Fold this sequence. Notes:
Blueprint: E1 6-8, E2 11-13, E3 19-20, E4 23-26, H1 41-49, E5 54-60, H2 61-64, H3 75-88, E6 92-99, H4 118-131, E7 137-140, H5 150-155, E8 157-158, E9 164-165, H6 168-177, E10 184-187, E11 208-211, H7 222-228, E12 238-240, H8 251-263, E13 266-269, H9 292-302
Parallel strand pairs: 4-5, 4-13, 5-6, 6-7, 7-10, 10-11, 11-12, 12-13
Antiparallel strand pairs: 1-2, 2-3, 8-9
Helix pairs in contact: 1-3, 4-6, 8-9
Amino acid sequence: AKGPYKVVGNKVVDADGKDHMFMGVDRCSLEWMPTGDHISAQDFKLMASWGSNTVRVPLNQDYWLKGAANYSANYNQTVYQAVQWAHQAGLTVILDLHWSDKGDLSNIHEGQQRMADKNSVTFWQEVAQMYKNDPEVLFELYNEPHDVSWDVWLNGGDSGDGFTVSGMQELYNTVRATGANNLVVVGGLNWAFDLSGVATHRVKGTGIIYNTHPYNYGGKQPSDWDAAFGYLSATDPVIATEFGDNDCSPSYYTSFVAYAKAKGIMWTAWAWYPGGCTFPALINDWSGTPTVSGAIVKAALQAL
């Protein structure tokens, strides 16, 4: 174990004061299936064999929270088991709040919302309490904020589609109030791609990594990266906890991996799941056979 970690300037440093880069893959399925899909000790060992030191695990607050319509009594333990298996493989884990419910625990159609809500605050109270003594767990406060203002993103308020947002500052404060010093990961707007507003809307606190999600869409091309997130890497640690291209072309991966290396930006690639190239998937099967894009990610990890 290299933790506990801290942020010094635009770097993360480990317990020995050495620069540390969190690099790896995203292991989805616990956001849509309370048991997870094919999650095993061997699966995490395969990720590590690619050169990953980190795995991001998306979660669903409505499987976690007692009183939610979709509450699953074993979910908390299932997540814990996944974290332990990942650690046994030498992986740091980013727990990501991926799906939520607009502040309504009776909502059976939970999913990716514009932003977090009051139930997300309870989720982070419980998750941070559970993992506050494990520095190899990072907390990603909300997956892909979108269609709210920077002020609402930071401070909360009206979502514009029927619920009250709990902002990034409240989520951060909730984690720290448990005594947890784990690093916290904060994604920007435009489905987490855009960090341009961070300069004027910083989350107040320490141990914060800012997060971008570059995908091959209009407005998210290499020429857009400097203004959206590259500029921030000069002052703050930046990670891309998702990136990819769902048109089955590897060029976006190649460009991003090179850009990230030049800027000192960390990443976890979407996704360690055999969902086909439009998913987009890094693997073709549960044996870890890389896709075309997966081969680029694997080569970059093995070069670390």
